[in-house]
Amino acid sequence: MWNTAKSIASLLMSYGLLLLANGMFGTLLGLRSKLEGFTTDITGLIMAAYFLGMLFGALHAARVVTRAGHIRSFAAFASIMSVAVLAHILIINPMVWVILRTICGFCMAGMVMIVESWLNERSTNDNRGRVLSLYMMTSYLGGGMGQLLLPLADPASFELFSGASIIFSLALVPILLTRAAAPKPSTPERMSFKALYKISPVGVIGTFTAGLSNSSINSMAPVFGKSINMSVGDISLFMASILLGGMLLQFPVGRLSDYFDRRAILVTVAVLTTGAAIAIVWASQQTNINLLFLTALIYGGVAYTIYPMSSAQTNDLADKEKLVQVSGSLLFAYGLGATIGPVVTSQFMERFKPEALFLCIAAGTAFLTLFVLVRIVQRPSGTRKARFLPLGSLGASNKQLYTNVQSAFWRKKNKKT
Question: Which of 62-66, 141-145, 166-170, 405-409 has the lowest average pLDDT?
Fold first, then answer.
């Protein structure tokens, strides 16, 4: 593992800095939107624009990389991202922020795609699974630690915006100095939603639900915290608890799903997510703030396993020759859910109360529970198992690492049989 980590250290450092800045900036922008007097539903539109940009970037950024190359494209994306972050405090206007967030989402998806394809090129079939594990640990740690930067300055001032811009610029350095040869980018070919749904209705609905809930949390949880009068320090710890909690149960839940019916484990996780979301609402009304942090940690632990579990369920049923197409279509399903999530939850938060964020998420995962239970009755469990692999909550990559690890797993399994 140590030799693997050393061989990809510079790439992981760039990726970690990206997630550090992006995690902090996403929460900061939600807080600043409320400080500027934007309504909750307008804030939801601003935050949703980021995921719309990510969706376009995941599907089309490879064209930029093909024309300019990995290093120049990464430099361009990072530079535009750095400028866009600063532009938020130069032009304080909701519609301008929507445009800027879309640009940020596109650039972030492009940079993540470049890092991922580079990591895939540097890894082998023997260590690609370990590379993916390090990649996902960096994702959750970067996003979680980014939340802890918020108390360093006042969100109403410019310092945190400048800090995010600086970190995005610093993310350029490790990749610009790497000696590794740049790989050729590839864009996953997507199959139709109808064909994907026919393969695994549970996988499609689970992925879409995960996109809805994850994007809603990443975007609107800071607004929830501000609306119930949490301090900036408490909001940062609340968000960090959710994101770092997402790393805790990936492998335990994944191992269970590899041995038992994947759908039964998905039902369990969905029920726990529903309960944890309701528990956050309860904890927010108590005087002990540590209860809120604990419930947030539990929520992140169970909620962020829905996406990889749904993806693994789909790969259980898909032809191994079509893993790339399946991956591209699942990515689109996640991105579609992620774009809709903040818009829907912000509308409920504006019309009812801030706690409606978690009640909406609870309703979504409760629906997923019922849907999976119906599918368990309709379709018996299969015998073939793809390997469960952790996936981040961003949904920004083209999943080159993911699909190649799955392909390597099937090759090894076929050799044994």
Answer: 405-409
Q: Has residue 412 got a pLDDT over 60?
A: no
The 10s digit of each residue's pLDDT in 273-293 is 999 999 999 998 888 899 999
| Per-position DSSP letters for 212-250, written without gaps between them | HHHHHHHHHHHHHHHHTT--HHHHHHHHHHHHHHHHHSH
Q: Is residue 355 within 8 Å of 281, Cβ to Cβ?
A: yes
Rama region for 229: left / alpha / beta (φ>0; ψ in -120 to 50; rest):
left
Domains in the chain: ranges and CATH? 7-416 (1.20.1250.20)
Phi, psi of 67 (to 5 degrees): -80, -40
How many Å apart are CA 204 and CA 278, to the nearest integer? 25
Task: With CA atoms as reference, report the closest residue to 53 among 205, 183, 197, 219.
Answer: 219
% of the chain with per-residue pLDDT over 90: 34
Length of the chain measured in residues: 417
Q: What are phi and psi of 173, to 5 degrees?
A: -60, -55
pLDDT of residue 392: 62
Closest Cα partner for 303 from 206, 403, 220, 372?
A: 206
Query: Which DSSP string corresponds to 245-287?
Result: HHHHSHHHHHHHHHHS-HHHHHHHHHHHHHHHHHHHHHHTTSS
CB 265 within 8 A of CB 253: yes
Residues 27/150, Cβ–Cβ less than 8 Å: yes
Closest CA to 402 of 120, 137, 11, 124: 120
Q: What share of the chain is helix, strand, coil (3-state, %, to 5)?
A: 80, 0, 20
